[in-house]
Write a structure and sequence with these properties.
The complex is a heterotrimer of chains A (about 290), B (about 300) and C (about 425). By secondary structure, chain A is an all-alpha fold. Chain A is about 80% helix and about 0% strand. The radius of gyration of chain A is 24 Å and the shape is globular. The chains are: A mainly alpha (about 290), B mainly alpha (about 300), C alpha/beta (about 425).
C-alpha cells in the first residue's frame, strides 16, 4: 500500500535521491541477464568455441542441432517427463495430506495440538543428511530403491511438514463464520472441510503448491541417492549426469542446450506466476 | 459433536503424522543411535553394528578433510551469511523505497533461484571465472587491473571464495524477498510521522526499519542456516572428480564416507561416521536456532 | 481458478495412471527363473542385469547398447543395462549390499577387484572354457595376457574374478605437430631432455605442459616414482607421511617448470576437464594422461590432431625409469550371488572378443583386447611403451588412495605451479 501512494506522484527530486538505488539494482540485473544470456548463447555454440572464448562470434554459425541432440541422445525428454510426473503427483498428494492436517491443527483444541505444530516445524530444521541413511537402509531392505514410486513418496513426505506449517496459518486467518453457518445447515465438520473450507483456502494452496513445485523440480540430493538410474532420473540429477558424461565426450554445446531445456519450464512458469511465487516465498517464510 | 470431531481429528492428522514418523522421526532417531556405532555399509543390519562410544566423533575431528569441511561450512555460514544478509537487505530497502519497476527488479533478482544449481554452477565455472576469456577477467582487464585479471579464480587460493560468491549470488534474491515482506508490513504512518519530524533516509532506516525487522531477521538467519547445512551441489560442481580441501563440506564428505569413495583404492566406508556428521550438523542448527530465539525474545514489536 | 485446479488434478491423475503402467516394468525386470543354478547351461530366456560404468551417450555406451541388441538376437538372452556413468562408484555398493539383483558390473580394474572384491564371483573356470568367438581356445588364451595376469594378481585370493577390456596406459600424451614445429626430433627420456624440449616448445610460442585437479595426484605420484622408486613412494602413502627429502626435489623441479613458464598459467585453476581442453585447442603440447584422452576430446580437437605418446622421463638415478608405468583396463565382474552367471559371462565373452571387441575399440579410439590386435594410429607409440613396461604403478602411484593426501597434493601443487609456494614451502606443507 505504502508504495502505491508514493508511486502515484513522480517526484523528480525523489527520483534523484533514489538514483544510487537504481544504479546498484540495475548493475545486478544486467549481470544476471549477462549470465543467463551466456548460457543461452553457449547452447547454440560448439565445444571449441566455448573453450576458446569465441562464443559471441558464432564463426561456425548457430547450432540448433544441439537442442535436437540434447533432447534425443541425452534423454532430456525422459528426465523432463520424469520431473513432470514427480512434481505433479507429489504436489497434489502433498495438499491432500497436508491440508486436512493443517485444518485440524488450526481449528480444533485438543491435547498435543501445540506439540504437533512444533513437531512439524522442527522438520524444517532437520538436515537431509540426518534422514538419508536410515531411509536408504529401510527402502533397500524393502527392495524399492531406484523406483519412481519411492521418489514420489519421499517428495510427498518431505514436503508435508512445510505445507502443513504454511496452511496452518492460512486456515487460522479464515473466518469461523463459514463453519458456523455450515453447522447450522447440518453439514458435518468433515464435509464442511472438503466442500467449504478447502475451496476457500485455494489461494493459499496455490501459493504453497507453486513453492513445492519449484522445490521438487530442482531437487537434487534425494533423487541422486534414491532414483539415480537412466529411467528414473529427474532433471536436476539428469543434468548432472549429462555434465558428467559430457566430460568424457566433450559435447558442451549439447550440455548447455540441455541446461536451457531444463531451465525453460521453470522460467516460463516464473514469468507468468512470479507475483504468486514471490508471495509464496514471503508468505511461507515470514511465519517461520 | 465431540466424538465426531475426535474421529475427524484422527483421520485428518493420521496420514501427515504417519509420513512424518517414517521420514523424519524414525530416521533421525536411528541416525543418532548409529553415530555411536561402528557401521560400515549404510544398509548393514543392526546386528552388525559395533558400539563405538564417541569413537566416530573422535575420528572425524582427527581427519584433516573433515576439519576443512567444518571450517568451510563455518565460513560459508558466517561470511556468506553476513554478505547475503547485507546485500539482500540493501536490495530490499531499495526496492521498497518507491523505485519504478519494482516488481521487474524483484523478479529478476529472484530469478537465479528458479534455475537448477547445476546449470548456474557450470556457467560460473566456465564463463565468469575462466582465466582466458571469462567475464571477470575481461572486466578487470577493461578497467586496467591487469594483475587482478590474471587471478586464477578457481585456483586453490581463490576457489573457495569463488564458490561462495557464486552460491551467494543466487541466495540474495531469496532473502531479499523475505526482507521486503517484512519492510512492507511496517505501517507507512511511521515513516510519514518521522519525515514530518525531519528524519532523513538513514535515520528512518536505523530508527524505524531496523528495529522492526528483528523477527524477519531471525527468520532469515534460520533459513540461511538450514540451507547452508545442506551445502552440497556447489561443492560437487567446483571439485567434480574428488574432494578438495578448499571446497569440501560436511555433506559432500559424508557422501563419500557412506556411499563409497571416488578414488579407486580399497577404502572402507564408514556410515557410523557419516551419521556422526549428521548429528554434528543438527546440533549446530539447534544452537543457531536457540541463539536467534534469544535475540528476539523480549521484542514486543515482532512482526 | 477453480477450473485450473480441476484440470491440474485431471492431468495428475492421467499421469499417475500412465506411471502405474511403466513404473512397474522398470522394477520387475530381474526376478526371473530363480531356481536355475549357476552351473547349468546358459538359458536363452533370461535377463542379465548389468550396472554399467558408462553413460549411454559415450561411444562405449553406444557400442555396448548395440552389442546387447546383437547378443539378444544371437542368444535370446536379454541384457538389461542400467547406465550409471561414473556414479557407479557411489551407487553399486549400496545396491549390492541391499541385495538388489545385479548380475554384471564394470569399472576400473583396481576398483572392481579391490573395493568391490568381496562381491565378485571367481571366473577362473568360466574363463578356461572355449566359446564360439574364441577359436576353440580358452578365453584367457585369446585376450591380452598382460591384463589377464594383472586382473588375476589384483583379484581376491589371487584368483581371476574379472575380465578386463578397454586397455589403457598412463603416459605423456603430446601434440606431434607442436613438437615438429619446435624442432624436437626425439621424445625426451631424461629430465634434462624434458627441460630442453620444454624450452623449444616455449620458444615456438606454445605452452609445454598443463594439468588439472583430476590429474595432479597422478603427476606427483609419477614424478616421485621416478625420483625414489615405486616402493618408497607407496610407503609414504601407507604411512600417511609425505616426508621423503625428494619431495623438496620435486618442488624444485616443478618450481623451475613454473619459473620458466613451462607449465600453463591456467594449470592451478583448471577444473577438470579444462586441462585437456587446453590440449585440444592446440595451445599446449603435453599432458600426463591416459590413452583414453584422444577419445575424450575428439569433439573439440581437430579431426587431424597428430597424437604422440611417450613414457614419463627418468628423473633421478634412485628412481624408476620409463619402464615403470601405470596400465590397466576396465573390468567386467560378476556378482557372486548372481543366478545368471553363465549368461553374464557369455555376454562378457561377446564383448571382449571378435566383432564387438574390434567395434568397441574403433568407436572409442581404444585398444582391442585381442592379442594380435592393431592399436589405433593415435596410440601407436603407446603400444611400444606398454610392451616395454616391466613395473606396474598402481593408479596415481597410490597418491589417490588417501583422500587427505590427495586433497593436500591438489592444494599445494596448484600453489607451487602458480608461484605461491617455493620448493621448501611445498615440502613443508606436504609434510604436515
Amino acid at each position: 500500500m505504502a508504495n502505491k501512494k508514493i508511486r502515484q506522484k513522480t517526484n523528480w527530486k525523489k527520483e534523484l535521491a533514489l538514483a544510487p538505488g537504481y544504479l546498484i539494482v540495475g548493475i545486478w540485473v544486467v549481470f544476471t541477464f549477462v549470465l543467463i544470456g551466456w548460457i543461452v548463447l553457449a547452447s547454440f555454440s560448439t565445444t571449441r568455441e566455448i573453450f576458446d572464448g569465441n562464443l559471441f562470434k558464432f564463426a561456425t554459425g548457430l547450432h540448433p542441432e544441439n537442442y535436437v541432440k540434447a533432447w534425443k541422445t541425452h534423454k532430456v525428454s525422459s528426465y523432463f517427463m520424469n520431473s513432470l510426473v514427480y512434481t505433479l503427483i507429489s504436489c497434489t498428494v502433498v495438499i491432500i495430506v497436508a491440508a486436512p492436517a493443517a485444518y485440524v491443527l488450526s481449528r480444533f483444541k485438543f491435547r498435543g495440538n501445540g506439540f504437533l505444530q512444533n513437531l512439524f516445524a522442527t522438520a524444517l530444521g532437520i538436515p537431509a543428511i540426518m534422514i538419508i541413511m536410515p531411509l536408504f537402509a529401510l527402502f533397500s531392505q524393502m527392495h524399492v530403491t531406484q523406483s519412481r514410486g519411492l521418489l514420489i513418496f519421499l517428495y510427498i513426505a518431505i514436503n508435508v511438514p512445510f505445507t502443513v506449517f504454511f496452511l496452518n496459518t492460512f486456515f487460522h486467518n479464515l473466518s469461523v463464520t463459514f463453519e458456523e453457518a455450515a453447522a447450522i445447515d447440518g453439514c458435518s465438520p468433515m464435509k464442511t472441510f472438503w466442500m467449504i473450507m478447502l475451496p476457500l483456502a485455494q489461494p493459499g494452496i496455490i501459493t504453497v503448491t507453486i513453492f513445492n513445485f519449484i522445490t521438487i523440480w530442482n531437487e537434487y540430493f534425494i533423487s541422486l541417492i534414491f532414483a539415480n538410474t537412466a529411467k528414473t532420473r529427474p532433471v536436476a540429477v539428469g543434468l548432472y549426469s549429462m555434465i558428467q558424461s559430457m566430460r568424457y565426450t566433450g559435447d558442451w554445446g549439447g550440455m548447455f542446450a540441455a541446461v536451457v531445456i531444463v531451465f525453460l519450464p521453470t522460467f516460463i512458469l516464473y514469468i507468468f506466476l512470479s507475483e504468486k511465487i514471490i508471495a509464496s516465498v514471503t508468505g511461507g517464510a515470514i511465519k517461520g | 459433536m465431540k466424538t465426531k470431531n475426535k474421529s475427524m481429528i484422527v483421520i485428518f492428522l493420521a496420514p501427515a503424522i504417519f509420513l512424518y514418523t517414517v521420514v523424519f522421526l524414525y530416521p533421525t532417531i536411528r541416525t543418532v543411535i548409529m553415530s555411536f556405532f561402528k557401521v560400515e555399509g549404510v544398509t548393514d543390519a543392526v546386528s552388525g553394528w559395533k558400539f563405538n562410544g564417541m569413537g566416530n566423533f573422535r575420528t572425524l575431528f582427527h581427519t584433516p578433510l573433515f576439519m576443512s569441511a567444518m571450517q568451510n561450512i563455518s565460513l560459508i555460514w558466517l561470511v556468506g551469511g553476513v554478505g547475503v544478509m547485507l546485500v539482500s537487505l540493501l536490495f530490499g530497502v531499495i526496492l521498497t523505497s518507491g523505485v519504478h519497476g519494482k516488481s521487474f527488479f524483484r523478479s529478476v533478482i529472484y530469478l537465479p533461484n528458479v534455475i537448477s544449481a547445476v546449470a548456474m554452477g557450470t556457467m560460473w565455472i566456465n564463463y565468469v571465472y575462466n582465466p582466458n576469456f571469462g567475464l571477470l577477467s575481461s572486466i578487470l582487464k577493461t578497467l586496467g587491473f591487469s594483475e587482478a585479471a590474471a587471478t586464477q579464480w578457481t585456483g586453490p587460493e581463490m576457489v573457495f571464495w569463488s564458490m561462495l560468491v557464486a552460491y551467494c549470488f543466487g541466495m540474495v534474491g531469496y532473502h531479499m524477498l523475505i526482507w521486503m515482506s517484512g519492510i512492507e508490513r511496517i505501517p507507512v504512518d511511521f515513516y510519514e510521522a518521522a519525515t514530518i519530524e525531519g528524519a532523513n533516509v538513514f535515520q528512518r532506516f536505523s530508527k524505524i526499519t531496523l528495529p522492526l525487522l528483528k523477527g524477519v531477521c531471525r527468520t532469515n538467519i534460520v533459513l540461511w542456516t538450514v540451507s547452508t547445512m545442506a551445502f552440497f551441489v556447489w561443492s560437487q560442481l567446483f571439485s567434480p572428480v574428488n574432494l578438495s580441501a578448499s571446497t569440501v563440506t560436511p555433506m559432500s564428505y559424508m557422501y563419500e564416507l557412506v556411499f563409497g569413495a571416488s578414488n579407486s583404492a580399497i577404502t572402507v566406508r564408514d556410515s557410523g561416521a557419516g551419521a556422526a556428521i549428521g548429528v554434528i550438523l543438527t546440533i549446530v542448527v539447534v544452537i543457531v536456532f536457540l541463539f536467534t530465539q534469544l535475540i528476539v525474545r523480549h521484542d514486543d514489536v515482532e512482526l | 481458478m477453480k477450473k485450473k485446479l480441476c484440470s491440474l488434478m485431471a492431468i495428475v491423475l492421467i499421469c499417475a495412471m500412465a506411471l502405474g503402467g511403466c513404473g512397474g516394468a522398470a522394477q520387475s525386470s530381474a526376478p526371473a527363473a530363480s531356481g536355475e543354478a549357476s552351473t547349468g547351461d546358459a538359458k536363452s530366456d533370461v535377463t542379465v542385469t548389468y550396472y554399467s560404468m558408462w553413460n549411454e551417450t559415450e561411444p562405449q555406451g553406444q557400442t555396448i547398447a548395440e552389442a546387447a541388441e546383437a547378443f539378444k538376437e544371437k542368444t535370446g538372452i536379454t541384457v538389461d543395462i542400467n547406465w550409471q556413468g561414473r556414479d557407479i562408484r557411489k551407487t553399486l555398493q549400496p545396491a549390492l549390499d541391499a541385495g538388489q539383483e545385479i548380475d554384471l558390473f564394470d569399472e576400473d580394474v583396481e576398483r572392481v577387484n579391490g573395493t568391490w572384491g568381496k562381491y565378485l564371483l571367481n571366473v577362473e573356470d568360466l574363463a578356461a572354457k572355449s566359446y564360439d568367438t574364441t577359436d576353440g581356445k580358452p578365453l584367457t588364451d585369446v585376450i591380452n595376457k598382460k591384463l589377464v595376469d594383472l586382473a588375476r594378481s589384483l583379484g581376491p585370493d589371487g584368483k581371476l574374478s574379472t575380465i578386463p577390456y578397454q586397455p589403457s596406459t598412463f603416459l605423456v600424451m603430446y601434440n606431434k605437430d607442436i613438437f615438429k614445429t619446435a624442432g624436437i626430433t626425439a621424445v625426451p627420456k631424461t629430465w634434462e631432455e624434458w627441460l630442453d624440449a620444454c624450452a623449444k616448445i616455449k620458444a615456438a610460442g606454445k605452452t609445454p605442459i598443463t594439468v588439472d585437479d583430476a590429474y595432479m595426484a597422478s603427476l606427483f605420484g609419477y614424478h616421485m616414482g621416478r625420483l625414489i622408486g615405486k616402493d618408497k613412494t607407496l610407503a609414504m602413502v601407507e604411512n600417511k607421511k609425505i616426508d621423503d627429502p625428494a619431495v623438496q626435489t620435486f618442488g624444485e623441479q616443478w618450481k623451475e617448470m613454473y619459473d620458466k613458464g613451462y607449465i600453463s598459467k591456467n594449470a592451478a585453476g583448471n577444473i577438470y576437464p579444462a586441462g585437456q581442453q587446453e590440449v585440444a585447442s592446440g595451445n599446449v603440447a603435453m599432458y600426463l594422461n591416459g590413452t583414453w584422452l584422444p577419445n575424450e576430446i575428439k569433439n573439440s580437437a581437430p579431426a587431424d590432431f597428430n597424437w604422440g605418446t611417450f613414457a614419463y622421463p627418468a628423473v633421478g638415478k634412485d628412481g624408476d625409469g620409463p619402464e615403470a608405468n601405470q596400465y590397466g583396463a576396465q573390468c567386467f565382474g560378476i556378482n557372486k550371488d548372481s543366478k545368471h552367471a553363465e549368461e553374464a559371462f557369455k555376454f562378457i565373452v561377446f564383448m571382449t572378443t571378435g566383432e564387438w571387441d574390434t567395434k568397441l575399440a574403433q568407436n572409442s579410439i581404444g585398444v582391442p583386447m585381442a592379442n594380435d590386435a592393431t592399436w589405433p594410429t593415435q596410440l601407436a607409440d603407446a603400444k611400444a611403451v606398454l610392451d616395454a613396461t616391466t613395473t606396474r604403478y598402481p593408479w596415481a602411484v597410490g597418491m589417490e588412495n588417501d583422500a587427505d593426501i590427495n586433497a593436500k597434493i591438489k592444494t599445494n601443487f596448484a600453489l607451487l605451479v602458480s608461484g605461491k609456494l617455493d620448493a621448501k614451502g611445498f615440502a613443508d606443507a606436504m609434510k604436515k
